[in-house]
């Protein structure tokens, strides 16, 4: 389970700033930061799944660019549909409502759409890397046959049962 330290140093977000070397494209019905292309004959991609601060976080995009520089096509979808957490200290922010709208089950379904879109473009090997909230989605994907590898880069709300593929439905991300 994640602790309060997960939210102690949120990124400085500047939505629409266009930071990063990639471009935002539609993929699987989602706005997606796309960077790199891999070697000309590569059929490999990495799906980066953000934490609750979303796909526009500058350091998240910088990481996507760095992974792309290692020879991969990297896609980082906006799983929050333009509604990432921007300020946890805002008294108007309703954490419970946000969690209901942006649960990891929905993220999993959306990720499968992105994966299908990648496969339709000829990508045959897909890895997923998830941070906090995204780690739960990556673990869910790892229990499917949709990806070949997964990594969780931050200890989000993942249990041993999650890793073993025994997910509870409608798991809400604790904050």
TrEMBL record:
Give a single Pfam family match.
DLH
One Gene Ontology term of the molecular function aspect: hydrolase activity
Q: Which residues form the Dienelactone hydrolase domain?
A: 32-156
* Cited PANTHER family: DIENELACTONE HYDROLASE (PTHR17630), ENDO-1,3-1,4-BETA-D-GLUCANASE-LIKE PROTEIN (PTHR17630:SF52)
Please report the name of this protein according to its UniProt entry. Answer: Dienelactone hydrolase domain-containing protein
Source organism per entry reads: Citrus sinensis
């Amino acid at each position: 389970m994640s602790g309060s330290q997960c939210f102690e140093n949120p990124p400085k977000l500047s939505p629409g700033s266009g930071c990063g070397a990639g471009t935002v494209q539609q993929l699987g019905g989602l706005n997606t930061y796309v960077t790199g292309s891999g070697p000309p004959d590569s059929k490999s991609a990495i799906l980066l799944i953000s934490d609750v601060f979303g796909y526009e976080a500058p350091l998240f995009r910088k990481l996507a660019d760095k992974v792309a520089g290692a020879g991969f096509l990297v896609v980082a979808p906006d799983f929050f549909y333009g509604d990432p957490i921007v300020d946890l200290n805002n008294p108007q922010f309703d954490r419970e409502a946000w969690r209901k709208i942006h649960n990891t089950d929905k993220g999993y379904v959306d990720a499968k759409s992105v994966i299908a879109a990648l496969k339709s473009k000829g990508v045959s090997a897909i890895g997923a890397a998830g941070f906090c909230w995204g780690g739960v989605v990556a673990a869910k994907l790892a229990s499917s046959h949709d990806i070949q590898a997964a990594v969780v880069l931050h200890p989000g709300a993942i249990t041993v049962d999650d890793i073993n593929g025994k997910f509870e439905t409608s798991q809400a991300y604790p904050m």
